[in-house]
Design a protein that fits this description.
The protein is built from 18 helices and no strands. The protein is mainly α and 415 residues long.
């Protein structure tokens, strides 16, 4: 172990290890909540497809409202205090679900408000998190750091859904959400001990609207960032539609219990692990642009095949659950192969003074339209069927993959 620490510059960095621990903790808790929150709505509150679309949209709406001003804030303030405040608010918000359930006042509108607050924290705190990592280790170490975090994220994806499924089946979904709330409390304490403090940016006398305009202009001036923005924006539009219907499809179309659903989603963790092992070889061989295209194609495979799973494949509900698990592998592998090089590429071409505005502006451009995907999928499922809604997502995925393959800025990125 000491030899490994001695030969790895990142592992020798105590502050990176603390950051990594919090990332693992939040990743594990996030995977638990990713299953528990929609199941709270589906099982406890009997949410309709339209309500599920609204719930998923509520978490994305803050990106359209706050992403651009958040970029100005992040370029004018230290990032670590913002991260600590954001994680504290997320922990309290998640704990409120369990409290509301115990007092018998939990409702779909409570869930909408919770999703909105969590989305707002993701906009501000998530942006601060990405910038702080860049200051902590430098741009050249980003791919290496993200590869390490992808490996531990795969362990979270392998273990957390199964744990969440068992907790939900034994103790109900609000108890599983409470586990994530405790994780945020531990993470806040851990990050508060980081010795490295990001530098306070130089004071700006520009009007915030001028800073927002400069951020948009910077991205428009970079062909690679433009290509990444429209590609990720269309992908998020489809993903949020998929997310609005995925749990409904598994529970109501395939008849999966929370325990079975958690066990099936565990295979996604193996997909994340596979992506962590493939990431560096693919980047070395083909470059980050081609790796992003491979990830896009893999997620589209998940979009296309999901609505084709019958309730009883070969006459067996178990076989349908296995097919669902297999798609979770390809989908989660594709997500990691898409987003890890995407995050590293956009930060590598951006100077320090634009990092906050670039990240927040990119998040605005890529996620602001996502609520439309969730609402549209919910509407189609409500008026036609869940499978029809997923089939529309699949058709969009095929068009997006074809268009991204044709995008020259992505194909031209070399190792």
């Amino acid at each position: 172990m000491s030899d490994k620490l001695g030969s790895d510059a990142l592992l020798r960095n105590v502050d990176f290890r603390r950051y990594w621990f919090s990332s693992v903790l939040n990743g594990f808790g996030g995977q638990v909540s990713a299953l528990a929150l929609p199941l709270c709505a589906v099982i406890l509150l009997h949410a309709t497809p339209a309500q599920m679309g609204t719930l998923v949209a509520a978490q994305a709406i803050p990106f359209g409202l706050f992403a651009l001003p958040a970029g100005v804030l992040l370029d004018r303030r230290r990032k670590l205090p913002i991260m600590l405040a954001s994680e504290s608010i997320q922990g309290i918000t998640l704990a409120s679900i369990a409290v509301a359930y115990w007092f018998g006042v939990l409702s779909i509108h409570w869930m909408y408000c919770t999703a909105f607050v969590l989305g707002t924290c993701s906009v501000i705190g998530g942006g601060a998190d990405q910038i702080f990592l860049t200051f902590l280790i430098g741009r050249e170490a980003l791919i290496e750091a993200q590869s390490k975090m992808a490996a531990t994220d795969s362990a979270s994806r392998l273990i957390a859904p199964g744990v969440a499924g068992l907790l939900i089946q034994w103790l109900t979904a609000p108890f599983a959400v409470l586990l994530n709330a405790f994780g945020f409390a531990i993470s806040v304490f851990n990050l508060s001990r980081v010795s490295v403090r990001d530098p306070l940016p130089a004071p700006s006398d520009k009007h915030p609207l001028r800073d927002i305009r400069d951020g948009l202009a910077f991205i428009w001036s970079q062909p690679l960032l433009r290509a990444l923005a429209w590609g990720a924006g269309c992908w998020h539009l489809l993903f949020y539609g998929y997310a609005a219907l995925g749990i409904l499809f598994a529970t109501r179309e395939l008849g999966m219990t929370p325990g079975t659903l958690g066990a099936a989603q565990m295979l996604g963790g193996i997909g994340v692990f596979a992506a962590s092992q493939l990431l560096k070889p693919l980047n070395r061989r083909f470059g980050a642009g081609i790796t992003i295209l491979i990830g896009t194609a893999s997620t589209t495979l998940g979009f296309v095949a999901m609505p084709l799973i019958p309730p009883a494949l070969f006459g067996s509900h178990f076989a349908s659950a296995v097919a669902y698990a297999g798609l979770a592998f390809f989908f989660d592998c594709g997500v990691m192969l898409f987003f890890m090089p995407y995050l590293a590429l956009r930060q590598k071409v951006t100077p320090d003074e634009f990092l906050g505005r670039m990240i927040s502006t990119m998040r605005f451009l890529t996620v602001a339209t996502a609520p439309l995907g969730a609402l549209a999928a919910g509407y189609i499922a409500e008026h036609y069927s869940i499978r029809t809604g997923l089939a529309c997502v699949a058709a969009g995925g095929i068009v997006l993959t074809t268009a991204m393959i044709m995008a020259k800025p992505l194909r031209s990125v070399r190792p």
